[in-house]
Specification:
Helices cover about 45% and strands about 15% of the residues. The protein is α/β, with parallel strands linked by helices. The two termini are about 25 Å apart.
């Protein structure tokens, strides 16, 4: 399934690869289409600089986007240098690769002197070695999920996750009762009650859809306001109590306020006629008051009205400040609270990735036209600021901080910047299409007019906008790096001509791209198969039978790869294959970047919700940070499909649904596909 990164390439370099390697331009973008030998070009560039141009290894910085990609480059450099073949055996065995890699790097000192790191690892070392004036250089890395890479970052992890730190800070902030109740109100309104509506089908307009601060479910927002007012003032109440008297008709008053011995009936358009109720209360000699919708339209009027009605009826010396704490108030809403915390983390991360001013984002959010958005940012402000202060106090940095703090160091301390600018005369960036604003700013700080910047990427494979990647840096490279040279590697050595044609047909529909004319070096009679099942079970059965055919014709299980946009698309397939003991690889398309297989099945190619493409505009809360653009999101979806198609070497199966075929399939030329039903 996966390309063997440790096997030396048998493909001789193309003229365009040689042009890229030999170029002495100072700003170079190599647009390397899928299967065109991108990594091979990068490796040859490093060797060319050292062997033919006399570059000192320590003057070369190669930046990758993943720890595995950095290791792949190192491994392939070692393989080229190791004449014994032993390192290939070590890689094949895969038992002690990390330890052996270090040993072989030290043996081949020129490789050890190269700087081959991820953006984060590079900045980690900058701050460790040169950042003491910017930040505590004994900092720890705080993440929001397990980080298992065997690198220096994993050895210096904080003893807590981001979510744990924020929950701790929420508890501290909630010592202010107003903040606690504001937080609880938000959780109830936009998580608890929304979940209730999703679970329950309303039978009529009298369902109890709203949750008050004390957990009581009530029938209207107005009743929720009243219940919350009582709870905030430590006034106990019963909602819709059962009357202990005999009445001429059955009814339950809205509230009974225990300490005041008072019934309160709120009149709205949902209420039963009030005159009959009033008569029953008077005849039974029960203390009764009524309110109506007019008081709920203005907070000051509302508070004054309830104060006037209730406060004077409470016992003398009544304690009207409740004793509340974070764990008791929110302990029953654990999952909802964590969803809120996740949203806070996402907002904080995006502000950092897009390099925005926190106060400006908070101001925009708190002035949004929608109450939900305003309420979120009113809470988010103190939470995010408390988290930033907490991280400084604890000497914590997250992955985005590593880059932003390095940028700050370089801007504020020119001597630190000059150290790196003078050292690195050659900067190579892999997967350039995935860069974000912070990373481009870092690159611009490191380069001088004499530095050779050699970037390799493919705008057609830019699929990480949700992480802040901006494909414009690749499409308009010369605008961001003037006087740039553009070199296109436009031969796909991986896929057959029909697969390449299908990928070209699809991506051609994107407006924001660099035009390329892609050719395949492989010819085959096998066209792309489109299977339209009348139901999912039929599609599952087709795929299972096709796998058995492929295996019987000599393919191995690892030669077959199933791809999908989201995990739900593959659930039925996984379950059935497990029952039938069919062992093949399943991957989301994003996790399959860099993989390839002889045979690829792409699932879930239907139109509409849950299909592919599926354009899901961001929550309005995130829209405050960056405006959503439907057309750009569709283009990103199309690039995701392009990436999935180009994982296939020999055969490609597109699995769709009869009568609900993805629009992406319809973009493929009929001569490139065979249809099956």
């Amino acid at each position: 399934m996966k390309v063997n990164p440790h096997k030396p390439s048998a493909i001789s370099l193309s003229k365009t690869q040689e042009d890229a390697i030999n170029s002495e331009g100072k700003r170079i973008l190599v647009l390397a289409v899928a299967g065109s030998g991108k990594t091979e070009t990068l490796l040859h560039k490093i060797n060319h600089l050292i062997e033919r141009k006399g570059a000192v290894p320590s003057s070369i910085l190669a930046i990758t986007f993943s720890h595995n990609a950095a290791n792949e480059i190192i491994d392939r450099l070692i393989l080229k240098a190791d004449k014994t073949g032993k390192y290939q055996e070590i890689l094949n065995d895969a038992t002690n690769v990390d330890e052996e890699r270090i040993a072989y790097k030290k043996k081949h000192k020129w490789i050890d002197r190269l700087t081959i790191k991820t953006f984060h690892s590079f900045c980690y070392n900058v701050l460790r070695n040169s950042g003491v004036n910017e930040f505590d250089n004994q900092f720890k890395i705080i993440t929001n999920k397990k980080y298992n890479s065997n690198d220096e970052l994993s050895a210096n992890k904080a003893g807590e996750f981001v979510s744990e730190a924020i929950q701790k800070l929420l508890s501290n902030l909630s010592e202010d009762i107003d903040f606690l109740l504001q937080l609880k109100r938000y959780i109830l309104d936009y998580y608890v009650d929304v979940s209730y509506e999703e679970r329950e089908t309303a039978i009529n307009n009298h369902d109890k859809k709203y949750t008050s601060l004390n957990g009581t479910r009530v029938r209207s927002k107005s009743e929720q306001f009243i219940a919350d007012w009582l709870y905030r003032r430590n006034i106990k109440f019963e909602y819709e109590p059962k009357l202990s008297i005999t009445t001429k008709f059955a009814f339950h008053p809205d509230f009974f306020i225990t300490e005041a011995n008072l019934y309160l009936e709120h009149v709205s358009n949902l209420s039963h006629p009030i005159a009959n109720k009033e008569r029953e209360f008077k005849q039974s000699d029960l203390l009764f008051v009524k309110t109506d919708e007019s008081i709920t339209r203005d907070t000051a009027v509302f508070n004054h009205a309830l104060d006037k009605i209730i406060k004077n009826r409470l016992p003398t010396g009544y304690k009207d400040t409740p004793s509340l704490n974070f764990n008791e108030e929110l302990g029953g809403y654990h999952n909802h609270l964590h969803r809120f915390i996740d949203k806070i983390i996402l907002v904080s991360d995006r502000i950092k990735v897009y390099n925005l001013e926190l106060d400006k984002v908070l101001e925009n959010g708190q002035n949004d036209q929608h109450e939900r958005v305003r309420s979120f940012y009113q809470l988010a402000g103190p939470i995010i600021k408390a988290y930033l202060d907490y991280c400084i106090d604890k000497s914590y940095l997250d992955f985005n901080d590593l880059i932003s703090r390095s940028i700050s160091l370089f801007k504020n301390y020119p001597d630190a910047l000059n150290k790196y600018k003078s050292q690195f005369q050659h900067i190579l960036v892999d997967e350039f299409q995935d860069v974000n604003a912070l990373q481009v700013e870092l690159i611009n700080l490191l380069i001088t007019p004499q530095t050779q910047l050699f970037c390799v990427g493919d705008d057609w494979q830019s699929i990480y906008a949700f992480r802040g990647a901006n494909v414009d840096y690749t499409i308009n490279f010369d605008q961001h790096f003037p006087n740039a040279e553009l070199i296109k590697l436009d031969t796909n050595y991986r896929s057959t001509q029909h697969i390449v044609q299908a990928s070209n047909d699809v991506i051609r529909n994107n407006k924001n791209k660099v035009d390329k004319s892609i050719e395949s070096s492989k010819q085959s009679d096998d066209k792309v198969i489109v299977f339209s099942g009348s139901c999912e079970d039929e599609s599952v059965e087709f795929c299972a039978n096709k796998i058995l055919d492929l295996l019987s014709n000599g393919l191995k299980n690892d030669d077959i790869l199933f791809l999908f946009r989201n995990n739900k698309m593959a659930e039925t397939y996984r379950s059935f294959f497990k029952e039938q003991r069919i062992a093949v690889s399943f991957r989301t398309i994003h996790s399959a970047k860099g993989l390839q297989a002889k045979v690829v099945f792409i699932l879930g190619l239907t139109e509409g919700k849950g299909g592919f493409p599926y354009i899901r505009l961001d929550d309005r809360i995130l829209n405050v940070i960056k405006m959503a653009n439907h057309d750009l999101l569709l283009e990103e979806e199309r690039r995701v499909f392009y990436v999935s198609i180009t994982r296939a070497k020999d055969q490609l199966f597109l699995i769709t649904e009869k009568g609900n075929e993805s629009s992406f399939i319809r973009e493929i030329s009929p001569e490139a596909i065979d249809r099956m039903f």
